[in-house]
Amino acid sequence: MSKRILTTALFLSFTLSITISAEEAKPIQLSLFNPIQLVSEGEAVRGIRLSLLYGKNTSVTGLDWGLVTHTTSGLSKGVQLGFVNMNEANFVGFQHGFVNSVKGNCEGFQWGFVNHAQNMNGFQLGIINHAGTMKGLQIGLINVIKQNGQFPIFPIINWSF
């Protein structure tokens, strides 16, 4: 079952990377840690980014996989798989990691131990879920929705529609 979900997610990320036009972007990024990476941190990646230890770029559209993944501006779209996934701007898609953080708008699904989004539109599944504002559902041990949630803090399930 999980292999089927991963295959579907990878297919969708590649489809997104081909069909969505963005600013001039590089198709492949390989990073040991920033600044030891093929593409500089000031450029976007549209395709695949593999971050062995730590990768940093403005945005990633497609598959973003690594130990620590970090985007700094713009809109990132696709699948983000890492131990720590950090987005300083906006993210659309699926995040899976121990820690998932989006400082801007997040639309999609966050699955991890700790999930955070400033403005969440979708689903958070984890032990600790936090959203500044939310339209969607949180399932976890501790669920926090700062504004307009059914409850400000609630165990097991919290929502705002």
**How would the global form be characterised?**
elongated
Sheet with most strands? 7 strands, mixed
Unreliable sequence segments: 18-22
Strand order of the largest sheet: 2-1-3-4-5-6-7
Main structural class: mainly beta
Structure description:
This protein has about 160 residues and is mainly beta. The chain has one domain (about 1-160). The protein has 1 helix and 7 strands, in the order H-E-E-E-E-E-E-E. Strands 2-1-3-4-5-6-7 form a 7-stranded mixed beta sheet. The chain is elongated, with a radius of gyration of 15 Å. The model is unreliable at about 20 (pLDDT under 50).
Descriptive keywords:
single chain; about 160 residues; mainly beta; seven-stranded mixed β-sheet
Write the layout of secondary structure elements.
Blueprint: H1 2-19, E1 25-33, E2 36-37, E3 44-57, E4 60-71, E5 75-87, E6 90-147, E7 153-160
Task: Produce a short descriptive summary.
The protein contains one helix and seven strands; from the N terminus they run αβββββββ. The protein has one domain (2-160).
